[in-house]
Amino acid sequence: MTADHVTDDTCPAQARSVARGRILLVDDEQAIRSALGRALRAEGHTVDFAETGSDGLRQAMAGSYDLVILDLLMPGTDGRTALRQLLRDRPAQAVLVLSCLADVKCKVECLELGARDYLTKPFSLAELLARVHTQLRGEGLGAVIRVGELRLHVGRMEADIGRGPTPLTRLEFLVLRELMEHAGQSVSRGRLLASVWGLDFEPGSNIVGVCVRRLRTKLGDHIIRTVRGEGYQLATR
Fold first, then answer.
1. Parts of the chain belonging to CATH 1.10.10.10
2. What region does 44 belong to: left with phi over 0, alpha with psi -120 to 50, or beta?
3. In what order do the strands lie in the sheet with 67-70?
4. Which residues pair with 233 in a beta bridge?
């Protein structure tokens, strides 16, 4: 694998407590499949491979994987099409997108489709392994965050304000969780861009405002206040 793809800065194996799982790695580059396969197996994971989106989709639908690591640019069925079809039929499947596409629109689309995480190439092998560990660990998936009348079910990505559970997209869930974790405080657009989209710059479109409007449509206009000149604040009453 070339340095253009990955930096091998992993920590010593004994320094980590690793949750082991069955992983499907879908990527058309042999170098990436070989290097990541070795690293994941060294962590104790079971790894299967697919070279195309269609093969990856078929294997993911036929098997039972704790995590699918999915490239986007592949011959035949591309990764976005495979992601859409997979999560349409298996919405609970954990998928980590690994792609050279770093534009905001692509990240947002994949997260909206239901991907759990998105990592761009080139990437640090240590960071990839840490993100894999986070997905397999599944900490807090059964948790419920409560603020006033609002309940956020973490594992199911559902919100409830007393009228029954309302499904949320991945981005809606992340924005609402950030606001709930800072209930009573104003959360700036910059903070939301950094924590939810992983951006440290304004993308040139009001992606935060669009997501907030969707949450208001689903949960009620009163649930999120706009604080002029500051950002957004969760209504606690």
1. 144-234
2. left
3. 46-50, 22-26, 67-70, 95-99, 117-120
4. 225
Chain segment 90-141, per-residue pLDDT in tens = 887 889 999 999 888 898 899 888 898 899 988 888 889 988 988 887 655 5
Q: How far is CA 69 from the centre of its chain?
A: 11
CB contact at 8 A, 72 and 79? yes
User: Residue 25: what residue type?
Assistant: L
**78 closest CA partner among 48, 44, 109:** 109
In CATH, what number does 144-234 get? Answer: 1.10.10.10
Tell me, which fold does domain 6-137 have in CATH?
Answer: Rossmann fold (3.40.50)
- Please list the residues that pair with 229 across neighbouring strands: none
Q: Report which secondary-structure segment, H or E, holds 233.
A: strand 231-234
**What's the pLDDT tens digit per position in 10-37?**
444 433 445 688 999 999 999 999 999 9
Reading the block at residue 178, the tokens are 């950030």
Cα separation values, 96 from 17, 73, 110, Å: 20, 14, 10
Asked, as a colleague might, if the bond just before 203 is cis with ω within 30 of 0, I would say no
Domain with CATH 3.40.50.2300 in the chain: 6-137
Residue 48 contacts by C-beta under 8 Å, 6 or more apart in sequence? 22, 23, 24, 25, 59, 63, 65
Q: What is the Cα–Cα distance from 49 to 220, expressed in whole angstroms? A: 44
